[in-house]
Amino acid sequence: MPTNTDGRTPTVSVIIPSYNTASLIAACLDSVWAQTYTDFEVIVVNDGSPDTAQLEKVLQPYRDRIVYIVQPNKRAAGARNTAIGRARGTFLAFLDSDDSWLPGHLESQMKLFEQDPALDMAYADAELISDAPRRKTFMETCPSEGVPTFEALVVERCQIPISTVVVRKAAIIKAGLFDESMPRCDDYYMWLRTAFFGAKLGYQRQVQARLYLGRPDSLGQSEAKMTEAYWKIMEKIQQNLPLSPEQSKLVRARATEMHARYLLEEGKVQLRERQPEKARQLFEEANQQLRRLKLSMAIRGLKLAPHSASALIAMWNRWRDALAAR
Predict the structure, then answer these.
(1) Distance from first CA to last CA of the chain, Å, rounded?
(2) Residue 162, C-beta contacts closer than 8 angstroms, at least 6 positions apart
(3) What pLDDT, on a 0 to 100 scale, did the predictor assign at position 264?
(4) Domain containing 65: what range?
(5) What whole-number distance in Å separates Cα of residue 267 and Cα of residue 279?
(6) What does the alpha-carbon distance between residue 127 and residue 222 come to, in Å, rounded to a whole number?
(7) pLDDT averaged over every residue in the chain
(8) 177 and 263 part of one domain
(9) Are both 60 and 106 inside the same structural domain?
(10) Are strands 100-101 and 121-129 parallel, antiparallel or unpaired?
(11) Per-residue pLDDT for 56 more than 80?
(12) Looking at the structure, do residues 31 and 146 belong to the same domain, yes or no?
């Protein structure tokens, strides 16, 4: 069984950040030890977690099989960078501590690298675990179509769940590691830069992991904040990467679209907070780019009868969200 004390150099370093997941990390680790591929080490980073006492109690049976690092809170990006700095493997496999792998995950991903020595990074589909009546997979809601190039990632034609990613460490280092200044979506920014700097990406449609969506403090819970993060990532790309004219045009268009979508989502937040005038102003600004008939109707309603329209729109959004969850 793999350990971090036998002196060998593992092929894969499994990187697991932990923050407030003491109740979930045992299932995560058990899924790693259940892998049919066994040439790996496991690095768990306690990212200044407030549940450290409980976490370390849960980790006790695993301590002779993992590298355990405690650090002040640096968010997920900082935890992953710390682990990368300690990783001995040629490949990195990312796994969030509230997610888990199916037993054949690493074996299946490593076969891709054997079949294509030029491949730098691979990801796969995953089952989404939530309170929704019907479980969906990641690729049902966030498809991958065609080759996952930089351009495909910009327009989200290909989308990547981090807990399925296996990547050459050299490719991550070349792209500059995770951006620790970002409170969310640092993984998306990482994949964009990895692809931009020449890494070859691939994926499988096979479900190889389970992604847990149930924590209310999850970074992905707020649609407005996520959309804002994607918009700001487009702006960072424009500022920080030597884009070609074609790439720059694509990124600018995407930034404009994501900004409008952020304004739309923030307008919905204002509706829920019973601020119809603020919502109307945000919707009007968003619709300068989106030009949607339904949004134009909502704006008109908020002008004529702000409180009544606000209640109707909020009810419609709740109904639509309930249907989407089925």
Answers:
(1) 41
(2) 94, 96, 187
(3) 86
(4) 12-212
(5) 4
(6) 20
(7) 88
(8) no
(9) yes
(10) unpaired
(11) yes
(12) yes
Looking at the 3D structure of the chain, how many domains does it have? 2
**Torsion angle, alpha carbons of 262, 266, 268, 269, to 10:** 140
Domain boundary among 188, 212, 236: 212
Whole-number pLDDT of residue 204: 97
Please state, in angstroms and rounded to a whole number, the distance separating the CA atoms of residues 171 and 165. 13
> Averaged over 18-36, what is the pLDDT?
97
pTM reported for the whole predicted model: 0.86
* Bridging pattern class, strands 100-101 and 166-168: unpaired
Last residue of a domain, one of 212, 236, 271: 212
Asked if residue 175 and residue 137 are part of one domain, the reply reads yes
Query: What length is written for the chain?
Result: 326
Say if residue 22 is in the same domain as residue 164: yes
Contacts for 195 with CB less than 8 Å, ≥ 6 apart: 148, 149, 150, 153, 201
Quick one: pLDDT at residue 270? 79
Pair 173, 37 in one domain: yes
Residue whose tokens read 């899924």? 31
* Residue 269: count of CB within 10 angstroms of its CB: 16
Q: Which residue has the higher pLDDT, 296 or 241?
A: 241
pLDDT more than 90, % of the chain: 69
Rounded CA separation 91/112 (Å)? 13
Query: Which H/E stretch holds residue 2?
Result: none
Whether residues 233 and 307 fall in one domain: yes
User: Would you put residue 303 in left (φ > 0), alpha (ψ -120 to 50) or beta?
Assistant: alpha
Per-residue model confidence (pLDDT) at position 322: 45
CATH of the domain at 42: 3.90.550.10
